[in-house]
Design brief:
The complex is a heterodimer of chains A (107) and B (418). With 107 residues, chain A is an alpha+beta fold. Chain A has three helices and five strands; from the N terminus they run ββαβααββ. Helices cover 15% and strands 20% of the residues of chain A. The longest helix of chain A is centred in the N-terminal third of the chain and has 7 residues. Chain B has 418 residues and is an alpha+beta fold. In chain B, helix 6 runs parallel beside helix 15. Classes of the chains: A alpha+beta (107), B alpha+beta (418). The structure holds protoporphyrin IX containing FE and FE2/S2 (inorganic) cluster (FES). The site of protoporphyrin IX containing FE (HEM) has 27 residues of chain B, from helix 5, helix 11 and helix 15.
Chain lengths: 107, 418
């Protein structure tokens, strides 16, 4: 089970053991991690699951995919190079140890 | 123009291909539920060949709406596509004031304009408005009569939303009646009692545009402040925003933020009245406000639908929507889709995932004011919870708006029992 660390904007950490195959958004919601809303249920259509991928991990998660994810995430407040929609990050064994930071607020 | 409105009182008496859900009167009578249920079951992607607005497709199921709404490449918001009556967006006369802001634009222009306006309604800027909202809400709730009949809409919902709007654009609070009048005209439909004709609406909008432009000039001469007009007057990105774009943006923020939130406030009171068990739950546990707020927004569905124009042929559920066809994504129907939302017809304030609803739309046009709307509703219900009222009784069925655009409550007599 990949372990994911979610860090809130104020520094509070939440460590979650997630089953392989679900998304980093689902893993946060099912474990009551605050700071991720997931309003569209994982369709890259709301951007309320915006996270910043730890620089050490961005190679492995990859950057936002240009067709679906990029047009949405570009409209988010405070978007950065390492911004991703958590619902588009599928958790696999290779992502065991992943660190994601949340913005001040989802919007 | 189709000559006669459909008799919608028995949804199963109408031949499927004659179903037309565009009649504003049907929403005023709150009579649309059965027709949409039938469409979801029998013809979820439905073609209406002949309506007062010409032919259009209805998308009625939750996931189909989500899919269409996020596909901005195949479905354009431009050319007045978002409304059934495109005069609403583009105006009717030669001298019309277009209200086509980024809500009715496609990328890349949409993105540029949206990004300029975003900071005004982003969570960080909204936090600044919360204290004021709370103070004003308290004052109004303190002043409503107990044990006497009054109209909840004009006394509470309209007062609170106009106050917020006046603050957002730093408009004199004493002149808020003018703001309401503009808002009513922007979202009005000929025959609704405010708008007499599209021509008259065009004339009124022109006066409004003049007033907005004057405000921008005034702000330009002043130090920058955090209200929307000042932001647009001073933002380096907004310097070359044309007069037309500027007026359209302010207009969108006014309608976007006014009726929708107002109607969610009134709709919540009605939903509680009809569901005393949910009211009891909320009284026992005011922390439920976080799920109550999105549930009232889903249950009311203040925007009935958003429209689009297909830019290419698209297949949905075996039907081919042709390039150039108009579609209507009926949020009011998708929000009651049992396949996506359990017990969708029930008002349940402690749903597991209450935020998963269609009322704000999805995709790049997803409501920019959604956090502001939620904040206003949260403050209202937090302050109501503190009042320890026994019951807000709705004394008669509400007067609903004559509109196929917004789902509104124009008046609703209530009595508060202490
Ligand atoms: C409960 C209250 C509200 C509801 C239900 C609502 C609903 C919607 C919907 C359905 C859209 C999507 C349009 C589309 O997909 O074509 C939208 C867009 C928009 N709304 Fe709201 N709205 C609400 C409150 C507000 C407030 C308070 C504001 C601002 C003060 C606002 C400003 C906007 C703007 C600017 C857009 C255009 C976004 C874009 O095209 O990128 N709304 N709203
Ligand atoms: S859950 Fe909506 S974009 Fe990720």
């Amino acid at each position: 089970m990949p372990k994911v660390t979610y860090i809130e904007a104020d520094g509070t950490e939440h460590v979650v053991d997630a089953p392989e195959g679900i998304s980093a958004m689902e893993a946060a919601l099912t474990n009551d991690v605050p700071g991720i809303d997931g309003d569209c249920g994982g369709q890259a259509a709301c951007a309320t699951c915006h996270v910043f991928v730890d620089p050490d991990w961005i190679e492995r998660t990859g950057h936002a995919d240009s067709e679906v994810e990029l047009p949405m995430i570009e409209l988010s407040e405070g978007v950065q190079d390492n911004s991703r929609l958590a619902c588009q990050i599928k958790l696999t064994a290779a992502l065991d140890g992943l660190i994601l930071r949340m913005p001040e607020a989802q919007f | 123009m189709a000559t006669q409105a459909l008799d919608t009182s028995d949804p199963y008496a109408i031949p499927l291909d004659k179903i037309d859900v565009s009649d504003p009167g049907m929403y005023q009578r709150d009579e649309h539920w059965g027709l949409f249920k039938r469409l979801r079951e029998e013809d979820p992607v439905h073609y209406c060949a002949d309506s007062a607005y010409g032919p259009y497709w209805s998308i009625t199921k939750y996931h189909d709406i989500l899919e269409a709404d996020s596909n901005f490449k195949a479905f354009s918001s431009d050319h007045g596509a978002i409304a059934l009556d495109s005069e609403r967006i583009t105006g009717a006369t030669e001298d019309a004031t277009s209200i086509a802001s980024f809500i009715s634009m496609d990328p890349p222009k949409h993105d540029v304009q949206r990004k300029i306006v975003t900071p005004a309604v982003a969570p960080s800027n909204i936090a600044r408005l919360e204290g004021l909202m709370r103070e004003r809400t308290k004052r109004i709730l303190d002043s409503v009569p107990i044990g006497e009949d009054f109209d909840w809409v004009s006394t509470v919902s309209i007062e609170l939303t106009l106050m917020m709007l006046a603050n957002l654009i730093d408009y004199p609070l004493e002149e808020r009646a003018q703001l309401k009048n503009w808002s009513d005209i922007i979202s009005g439909t000929p025959g609704d009692g405010v708008v007499e004709s599209w021509e008259q609406r065009d004339r009124e909008l022109k006066i409004m545009a003049g007033a907005f432009l004057e405000m921008r000039e005034k702000r330009r001469a002043e130090e920058p402040k955090s209200d929307l007009i000042s932001m647009l007057a001073h933002s380096p990105f907004a310097q070359d925003m044309s007069m037309v774009d500027y007026v359209a943006n302010v207009t969108t923020l006014i309608v976007g933020g006014n009726d929708t939130t107002r109607n969610s406030m009134s709709g919540g009171v009605l939903a509680f009245h009809e569901n005393p068990g949910e009211w009891a739950k909320f009284k026992a546990n005011p922390d439920l406000v976080d799920s109550l707020v999105p549930e009232t927004i889903r249950y009311q569905t203040p925007v009935l639908f958003m429209g689009r124009l297909a830019t290419q042929d698209v297949e949905m559920r075996g039907k081919i929507i042709r390039k150039g066809d108009k579609i209507a994504m009926w949020y009011i129907s998708g929000n009651r889709d049992e396949e996506a939302i359990e017990n969708a017809d029930s008002f349940i304030i402690d749903r597991e995932r209450p935020r998963q609803h269609l009322s704000f739309g999805f995709g790049i046009h997803r409501c920019l004011g959604n956090r502001l709307a939620e904040m206003q509703l949260r403050v209202l219900w937090e302050e109501v919870a503190k009042k320890d009222w026994n019951h807000i009784e709705v004394l008669a069925p509400p007067t609903r708006s004559y509109s196929n655009n917004l789902r509104g409550i124009d008046a609703m007599p209530v009595r508060i029992h202490a």
